[in-house]
Specification:
single chain, 30 residues, 1 helix, 73% helix
């Protein structure tokens, strides 16, 4: 009942991916 752990992992992983992509873009790496 409520959000399952798998959903939390997927959401957290998505945020981590966006943060990583933003860091690489800030460094000028395509």
């Amino acid at each position: 009942m409520g959000a399952s752990q798998s959903e939390v992992v997927i959401i957290g992983g998505g945020l981590a991916g966006l943060a990583c992509a933003a860091t690489l873009a800030d460094r000028g790496i395509p």
